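pasting for the record
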Amino acid sequence: MLRGYYTAASGMIAQQRRQEVLSNNIANATTPGYKQDQGILRAFPELLIQKIGTETAPTARQLKLPIQTPIGSLNTGVYMQEAVPDFQQGSLKDTGIGTDMALVNGTMPDPSGSVFYTVQNETGDIRYTRNGNFTVDGQGYLVTNQGYYVLDQAGARISTDGLEFDVTDEGTVQTANQAMPLGISYSPNANDLVKEGNGLYQLANDGEAMQNARNNPNISFQVKQGFLEQSNVDPAKTMTDMMEAYRSFEASQRVLKAYDQSMEKTVNQIARLR
């Protein structure tokens, strides 16, 4: 009886966490470069149920031998193990703004690989992003909309000295005086990156090191000036998934209520002393 409580409760908790992930995806459906999260649901380890009994041996002493008869396996609940970002390419939106840059994946040597802009946060640490909604600060540096510096191939800040600059398809920022290749980093396994907020990613401690995408001839990409990569969230599908999670939560809730009613009858009626 108590096992049913735990199984139903675990289903409710898992669907609640899944709902939170889906709600966050919907909230960022219009955020440039946002990659939707996918909740991974898994069952608790299976239990092998066996019937324990005895069998009388055909001997003079009629020995009792213990036996175990397999009944089957049983799962004791479900849980949401993690939320994994989906790095599928988002659609492009023409903004006509020169500081907007959409990063488009081309050929990747690894099926789970992806390319990212390289930026520097307020503490000087290196971070990665797909959000190309850039601007130019008061000192003439190319920065993200949070004020983080966009870095070039050598890891230096990019100075455009104003809004008059061009960006080639190869990702080179060209001004009147110089040409600066954008720092494009490649992750062989994008799942090694951890979301930090504000569209930024950092490399997990045990993740495979980021590579300079320009040094690998097997990697191709494009940078489209005047465009933004939209989020890869499908609002219609996400809303359907949210309704499915809600219905699953309700179903587990009804099961929990049924167990509670059965327990009430067991305690207050069946076990009542007369």
